[in-house]
Amino acid sequence: MNSIPVALKTGSGFKTVRAYVVLMKPRIIELLLTTTLPAMVVAQRGLPSISRVLITLLGGTLSAGGANAANMWFDRDIDALMKRTKQRPLVTGEISPTAGLSFAILVELISFIILWKYDNLLTASLSLAAAAFYFFVYTMWLKRSSSQNIVIGGAAGAVPVLVGWAAVQNDITLSGVMMFLIIFLWTPPHFWALAFRYKEDYSNAGVPMLPSVASFEQTSRSILIYTVILVIATLVMGPIAHLGVIYDVTAIALGAGFIYYALKLRSSHSPKVAMRVFSYSITYLTVLFLAMGIDTLVFHH
Q1: Domain that holds residue 206
Q2: pLDDT digits (tens, 9 = 90+) for 53-99
Q3: Is the dihedral of CA 150, 151, 153, 154 positive or negative?
Q4: What is the pTM of this model?
């Protein structure tokens, strides 16, 4: 890690603040929050109080941000080797490794206290467990050792729906578990599609992401299999959570689109199509969860 500057660069306060925001990977957090709020609406069978929503989203943001910062702290050696990540603050030296890790721990601690004090202990514990799983199981162990890294590690990204559910109900029911399963199944095709674009990066850094260690044929087949199982899970979700026609029609239409793109990728073997699958997967998850919330408000409010 000699190539990584450890001294903090001097710069404006704004630049430093921006560097810490980058450490938290706000784009990823955005996606987590778009699933947490609908989970709260379905759990409440209506709109939860604004204060409950704001506290849960704040706690969830800090928890995910802390986990992401810890991930960047640990991965700063391989981040320096990849085009996609070599401008990250811990690689460029905008933030020192010690400051980065301290920030991650502090943010995680604040998140736990907020969720425990204003929601409940189950919510705070689930959020902390997700962050710990992401760091210790995915980042430290699986990411560098297994091509199934994102399959198992992706569970951490599915926990925010359980956090939202627990914030409202203070327990976890089958409907909450189904939401978790949907995101768990969605993560591999979503991430593998993106990894096609950066497979040389992963190879150079020695990270066995599936597209960098398996053939296009194998990876595209895996994407298709996960997509089909995902779509089945979304259709099962309707009756389990007592959702209505808005959700069902949306799930069928979105699922057909996802399968179409996955089949197109299988036949085209094109990295350009892989990026279309990736883009579509983000829209897919956002609209699917939005439909859950809208359906609940229309038919059960």
Answers
A1: 15-300
A2: 999 999 999 999 999 999 999 999 998 988 888 889 999 999 999 99
A3: positive
A4: 0.90
